[in-house]
Amino acid sequence: MKKGLVLEGGAMRGLWTAGVTDVMMEHNIQPDGLIGVSAGAAFGCNYKSHQIGRALRYNQRFANDRRYSGLWSLLMSGDYFNAKFGYHVVPYEYDQFDMRTFEENPMAFHIVCTDVTTGKAVYHEMTHVDYDELEWLRASASMPVLSKVVRVQGRQLLDGGVSDSIPLAYAESIGYERNVVILTQPQGYQKSHNKLMPLMRLSLHGYPEMVRALDCRHEMYNQQLRYVAQAEREGRCLVIRPDDKIPIGHISHDPQQMQRVYNLGREMGERYIDRIKEFYNKE
Predict the structure, then answer these.
(1) What single DSSP character describes residue 118?
(2) What number is the average pLDDT over the span 70-92?
(3) What is the mean pLDDT of residues 12-24?
(4) Helical pair 208-215 and 217-233, crossing angle rounded to 10 deg
């Protein structure tokens, strides 16, 4: 029975998820495949490269470096999180991504993006590391308005969370029968219609299907929550979520706040570690 790990996005809330997954790595838990969305992909790649603490480390190091993120980067490059520095300099020069371990690890790694021309999800398996593959990773985490459309291998892509925020159904469709799902919102959360839709429409006026997907995202997301809840009742998945709203926004430049959020994730990971092992190992 194939074991999957599904990681929701949530921008900097993903550091909470990184705390959970770092504990899982420390306990040598190896799913057969990981499917990450947005920050779930950008930080989740460190699971396949087995680099405990890396997601927190480089975010703290460059929290106030304008080369990495901020309004200066947005004005100069069109991306709040600088594309070149964040995805093509940091992993090679400053906090090296262990590409060899990533490529040799048999765990499959899937990324979810949204095709801006169709508004539909695009699923990509990342098996190696090169410029284009890192662009797929960047695309998954490229938030509308704060990022330019990412063009890679004939696709025009943005944030995977717009079209498939919690890809449990996709994981099951490709053969993962027992999935741990890590969410970044507490029990009872329901997504509301995006109040920034007028800005979204202006920013993405050339991509009407993407605008339509953004306009309906809250409906898609809440339907996925119901799907996850049903799968949990049926024993098909184990859901890990924060007890309360994670105390960080989509964007943060505070290393101490990042540390607190990461520590909360680690605490949840330690609380759940025996349940994860039991769930993955049961017949």
Answers:
(1) T
(2) 90
(3) 98
(4) 50
C-alpha pair distances (Å), 255 with each of 19, 65, 146, 251, 261: 15, 12, 21, 12, 10
Q: How many CB atoms lie within 10 A of CB 156?
A: 18
Averaged pLDDT of the chain: 96
Burial of 102 (0-12, 13-18, 19+ CB in 10 A): buried
Q: Which residues pair with residue 6 across a beta bridge? A: 35, 181
Residues 17 and 64: beta-carbon distance below 8 Å: no
Which H or E run includes 248?
none
DSSP-derived 3-state class of residue 237: strand
Rounded distance, CA 39 to CA 138, Å? Answer: 9
Contacts of 218 (CB under 8 A, 6+ apart): 190, 191, 192, 193, 194
Measure the CA–CA gap between 34 and 45, rounded to whole angstroms: 9
Q: Which two tokens stand for residue 128?
A: 């190696």
Q: Which residues contact 103 (CB under 8 A, 6 or more apart)?
A: 127, 128, 129
Is the predicted pLDDT of residue 162 greater than 80, yes or no? yes
3-state SS assignment for residue 242: coil
Q: Which two tokens stand for residue 115?
A: 């095709």
- Would you state the structure tokens that stand for residue 279, as one six-digit string? 């769930």
pLDDT exceeds 90 at position 131:
yes
What 8-state DSSP symbol labels residue 5? E
For residues 67 and 82, give the distance between their C-alpha atoms in angstroms, rounded to a whole number: 7
* pTM of this structure: 0.95
Tokens 């990533």 — which residue? 102
